[in-house]
Amino acid sequence: MHRITLVPGDGIGPEVTQSAREVVTAAGANVEWEVQEAGMRAGEKTGRPLPDAVIESIRKNKLALKGPTQTPFGDPYPVMVGDRVYPSVAIGLRKELGFYAAVRPIKNYPGVKSRYDNVDLIIFRENSEDLYLGIERMVDADTAEATKRITRGASERIARFAFEYLKKLGRKRLTVVHKANVLKLTDGLFLKAAQDVARDYPDMELDSRVIDALCMELVIKPETFDGLLLQNLYGDIVSDLGAGLVGGLGVAPGANIGPDCAMFEAVHGSAPDIAGKDLANPMSLILSALMLLRYIGENQAADRIDRALTAVLSEKKHVTRDLGGTAGTREMTQAIVAKLK
């Protein structure tokens, strides 16, 4: 039995996490849930948007499924762990739990409107450094600067992770993305580290793209890419671009993986304007739960969910408005569960 920390989150979070939970249960997965609150609701109740109990639960269980969280701006609820202050709950969890790899599969599903066909790629984002370290300073009243830090250790770690991930799936090609023509030291180090790691994988292909050229190619022929390896900032931007290729953030799952635990989460926001109205598309979190099941070896349950979701999307009878239907969150969830019986 796998025990999973479940963080419902804010806004539509409780609705979509409940949907994912029901689908996973209906698929017969060998899991149980430990519910923990984080986000604005937790801040309002306890003054702590990221309570210690959440981090302790994930450390203990090694697994988490997280709904979208809304971080209050400024006081009275700063995101603090000990004496450390973070910009958001998500970033706090990544830093405290060492989630160095963000994984974002980008895939076309039948029935989901898109400008492209046959897109099936995986984005690997280095999650621990780059400009997202948040090292900034005011040089003078009119000048601000930020520090971009790239290390060989972190770069080689994410490159090896990406190669191993693709190898397990039987994929053969990884594209490392950079701007080494201008940022010769930082991006140059990231590129060189990936090339060095590639020597350990002679049966796989490593090629490279400058970040701006990659963006152009992605909107012309995204189906030609297999795996993309990016630094933190580029990975954040290209992940959302990738979701747009296949229908938007509502159809894209995500995972954050560290040395000894992993968190799977919806990549969209908490959408407070539609919270509680039975309008939210649960697909992103259901797909994230599917990723979690594959991560723990519950492949039979994951395959069943994939087939059931694909069938519901193909029929288009019980899908939410953003997917071209008229169903609510509950109706779409029930349709998927019915396909699992």
Per-chain topology:
Layout lengths: L1 E6 L5 H14 L4 E5 L4 H7 L5 H10 L1 E4 L12 E3 L2 E3 L2 H9 L3 E7 L12 E7 L9 E5 L2 E4 L5 H17 L4 E6 L7 H13 L6 E6 H8 L8 E4 L1 H14 L7 E5 L4 E5 L16 H13 L3 H17 L13 H12 L1
Parallel strand pairs: 1-2, 1-3, 3-14, 7-12, 10-11, 10-12
Antiparallel strand pairs: 4-5, 6-7, 6-13, 8-9, 13-14
Helix pairs in contact: 1-9, 1-11, 5-6, 9-10, 10-11
Q: Terminal Cα separation, in Å? A: 21 Å
What oligomeric state is this? single chain
Number of extended strands: 14
What gyration radius follows from the Cα positions, in whole Å? 20 Å
Query: What can be said about the biggest beta sheet?
Result: 10 strands, mixed
Total domains: 2
Strand proportion? 15-25%
Q: What form results from the Cα inertia axes? A: globular
Per CATH, the class of the largest domain reads Alpha Beta
By CATH, the topology of the largest domain is Isopropylmalate Dehydrogenase
Structural class by helix and strand composition: alpha/beta
Mean pLDDT across residues: 95
Uncertain stretches: none
The largest beta-sheet arranges its strands as: 2-1-3-14-13-6-7-12-10-11
Put simply, the count of helices is: 11
* Helicity, as a percent range: 25-40%
CATH architecture of the largest domain: 3-Layer(aba) Sandwich
Order of helices and strands: EHEHHEEEHEEEEHEHEHEHEEHHH
Descriptive report:
The structure is a single chain. The chain folds into two domains: about 1-100 and about 250-340, Isopropylmalate Dehydrogenase (3-Layer(aba) Sandwich), CATH 3.40.718.10; about 115-245, 3-Layer(aba) Sandwich (Isopropylmalate Dehydrogenase), CATH 3.40.718. The protein has helices at about 15-25, 40-45, 50-60, 90-95, 150-170, 185-200, 210-220, 230-245, 285-295, 300-315, 330-340, and strands at about 1-5, 30-35, 65, 80, 85, 100-105, 120-125, 135-140, 145, 175-180, 205-210, 225-230, 255, 260-265. Strand 8 and strand 9 form a beta hairpin. It has about 350 residues and is α/β, with parallel strands linked by helices. It is built from eleven helices and 14 strands. A ten-stranded mixed beta sheet has the order 2-1-3-14-13-6-7-12-10-11, sandwiched between helices. The protein is about 40% helix and about 20% strand. The longest helix has 17 residues, at about 150-170. The model has no long low-confidence stretch (mean pLDDT about 95).
